[in-house]
Amino acid sequence: MKLRRLTRKRATDEVYENLRDAILNRLFKPGERLHVDEIAERLGVSLTPVRHAIQQLASEGLIEIKPRSGTFVATLSLDDIDATFDVRIALECLAAEKAMDRIRPADVHKLEELLKQLRKPVTSEETLRKHEKANSDLHLLLIEAAGNRRLTEIYKGLNAHLTIARIHAAEHNDPRPAKEIAKRFAAEQSEHDEIVAALKARDLPRMKTAVEKHIGRAKSSLMNAWKSQN
Ligand SMILES: [Zn+2]
Fold it and tell me: Does the domain made of 78-229 have the CATH classification 1.20.120.1730?
């Protein structure tokens, strides 16, 4: 009995991972209807783990279950994006406070490596993906450096919503002018440098200012992109 339970749990976890990736990688688009039986068939599993995985994703806000209507990939409003970024700023400032005294030299070294990676030119889908990964790794490292597991969990949940927002903003996107993108990357670069420099200098007010500026700018950039697409 114990063994069967574990097996079923693993199936749910695998379906969960699979669906989550599919949503975050735009295979399923915001607002798209999800069919449990179709997903089960495509993944070669029974309906139960798919239903469990969908419940889990719904509790994280990535999926919306509408009674008598169906199951959909979550969509976001402009207000949602606004609110989510405000919470993110608060969490990253709290993390800065906690991380300041306890961050290890090895983590500082990792941050510097990520800054190096972020300086590489973005010229293709592939380099853009690497850039985005390094960006989110940098922020996650700062959060984890706070050494508060609850904070990390909440942050990760929040991040999933922001990813949905990004997907939304880029949806029917003609690529934005190259000049504008280069400008955004340059701003982002100096903001990241400033955050890490403030951390190394153990200067908390400076770091909070840098975090607020960086995420505040990312927020208006995303909200503007969202407005132009919706
Ligand atoms: Zn960043």
Answer: no
